[in-house]
Amino acid sequence: PPTELRESEEASNVCRPKDYSVL
């Protein structure tokens, strides 16, 4: 389900501060 994918993406973002740079 898309919800699981979102959780995985969120976890990846937490581990990847670079993604936050885009924000």
Overview of the molecule:
This protein has 23 residues and is mostly helical. It is built from two helices and no strands. It has helices spanning 2-15, 17-22. The longest helix has 14 residues, at 2-15. It starts with a helix and ends with a helix. The model has no long low-confidence stretch (mean pLDDT 61). Residues 1-23 are annotated as: Disordered.
The largest pleated sheet is described as: none
Number of strands: 0
- The whole-number mean of residue pLDDT values reads 61
H/E element order:
HH
Structural class: mainly alpha
Count of DSSP helices? 2
Strand content: under 5%
Shape: rod-shaped
Helix content: over 70%
Rg result: 9 Å
What separation lies between the terminal Cα atoms? 25 Å
The low-confidence parts are none
Question: What's this, in brief?
Answer:
Residues 1-23 are annotated as: Disordered. With 23 residues, this protein is an all-alpha fold. Helix content is 87%, strand content 0%.
